[in-house]
Amino acid sequence: MPSPFPGMNPYFEQADQWQDFHTEFLTVLRRQLAPQIGPDYIIQLEKHVYIHDLPPEPRRSLGDLEAPAVVHLPAQDVERVSFLEVRDRRGREIVTVIELLSPSNKRQGDDRQQYLAKRREILRSAAHLVEIDMLRGWEPMPADDRPEGDYSVLVSRAERRPAAEFWPIRLRDRLPAIPIPLRPADPDGRVDLQNVLHQAYDGPGYENFIYDGSPEPPLSAEDAEWAGGFVPHPA
Fold first, then answer.
1. Which pLDDT tens digit goes with each residue over 178-226?
2. Which residues contact 3 (CB under 8 A, 6 or more apart)?
3. pLDDT tens across 4-22, in order?
4. CA neighbours within 13 Å on the CB side: how many for 121?
5. Distance (Å, rounded) from C-alpha 31 to C-alpha 202?
6. Please, are residues 156 and 127 in contact by the beta-carbon 8 Å criterion?
7. Bridge partners for 53 per DSSP
8. Cα–Cα distance between 25 and 20 in angstroms, integer?
9. Which of 12, 55, 62, 132 is positioned for an S-S bond with 21, CB 3.0–4.6 A?
């Protein structure tokens, strides 16, 4: 069953849904791209690791033996965010990095700064960058002369920097088909993001539970009324 929305499904934009959808979307994208680029390239699912300090917990007794002092180390949470790397099969050099942005990339704080540092490293390298932003919330990635849009795709080819191809996308727009650049001698791969979304929606049975919540951030009254016409209702 394809997603009922003509473009992005905003019901994936929920804190308890996004991470699962993020991994599913990249897995489907990988499966669409792999037959186009083999046997000269390999495409692998990799992970960024973000470590967050958690609020302190109440003190607990640890036994009868008393130390002269008690200190409290910050509890930590580890978040792993997937991305794709296209590598040359023979030399294993990174050719293209494909990122699907997550809230951790867009919210102000250490995680965003860590991602921006990695982004700058890629943009200074010989690797291409494909950056897909399917989140309406938070601050977009820096880019001069950025057109307005709810979502976006950026394709930065190493040989054309600082210029980059850019697709601004509105909530009601169909998601575009985009190029995946490879070595200069090889033709681009091509990925239809709307088709990727439909396939990602179909497999895990998202239609059975994502509509229990609401998009984050909330849709405008006009967009909420429009979106309500696509939400499936229980039989």
1. 999 999 999 999 999 999 999 999 989 999 999 999 999 999 999 999 9
2. 9, 197, 198, 201
3. 999 999 999 999 999 999 9
4. 8
5. 15
6. no
7. 76
8. 9
9. 12
